[in-house]
Amino acid sequence: MLESVGLDDRSSFHPTKLSGGERQRVAVARALVNNLSIILADEPTGSLDSHASDEVLKLLVDLHEKKNVTLIVVTHDLNVANLAERQIEVLDGKIN
To answer: 82 and 51 in contact (C-beta within 8 Å)?
Structure first.
């Protein structure tokens, strides 16, 4: 699973030696291993460069499409939000 998120070369690293983006990708790999039916993701691409961000989003979309995983994503990134089938906007604590 680490290979699927581009971290196969980091398998022996202690978590404190990983960057924030690498830790986010490990979290995605953990979700893949656990075969979850629902994934809650808070800013899943927040600490990633554009390439790593695209890879993580592709993984999440593939999980949804191929394994019927429900994704609930919180994001400020409209590019990420626009990938969703449904969007719910919260503004000043109210659902719009």
So the answer is: no
Q: Which fold has domain 3-95?
A: Rossmann fold (3.40.50)
Burial of 6: CB neighbours in 10 Å, binned 0-12, 13-18, 19+: middle
CB neighbour list of residue 39: distance below 8 Å, 6 or more residues apart: 31, 60, 63, 69, 70, 71, 72
In this structure, is the dihedral angle defined by the CA atoms of residues 6, 36, 87 and 90, taken in order, positive or negative?
negative
- How buried is residue 74: exposed, middle or buried, by Cβ count under 10 Å (0-12/13-18/19+)? middle
Q: What percent of the chain has pLDDT over 70?
A: 100
Phi, psi of 80 (to 5 degrees): -70, -45
> pTM for this structure?
0.76
Q: For the residues 75-88, what does the mean pLDDT come to?
A: 94
All structural domains of the chain with their residue ranges: 3-95
Structure tokens belonging to residue 50: 């554009």
